[in-house]
Amino acid sequence: MVDGLIIRSSSIHAAGCYTTRAIKKGKRVCEYDGPRFTKDEADDRYQDRDITYLFSCGENGLVIDGFGTAMFINHSCDPNCESENVDGRVFVVAIRDIAAGEELTYEYNLYDSDDDEQNCYCGAKKCRGTMFSEAEVKRRARKARALAKAGR
Prior knowledge:
152 residues; alpha+beta; three-stranded antiparallel sheet; 10 strands; chromosome; Post-SET_dom; SET domain-containing protein-lysine N-methyltransferase
């Protein structure tokens, strides 16, 4: 993993994770770690919170309740990292060379949320305006069309 990660103010969202050292493409930056429990347990635990640090970690429906440096990595529609799931462990990996001083970001690809919106404030030139995955955006559009059709 990479040494030299710091947390400081971010123009994307409150606090962000930055690197003080250059990172090469393909390098594992850090692990998204913390307690694991089911999505239903997470929904119960965080039903009254606007912000959570939950990360899906596999096909078995478990989520990681983020703890540590990785929980401060913000979403971007033009990220410099991506998440990699290896046997239920989630690593953040550089998808391009990253210069010292850059904020680390990855595409959250949110899905299966009870929230109506997950607005994105990443500021990328081609920002989609949402942290939902493209598949989730399409699923919601299909659902809205079906509801509109049924309402006629």
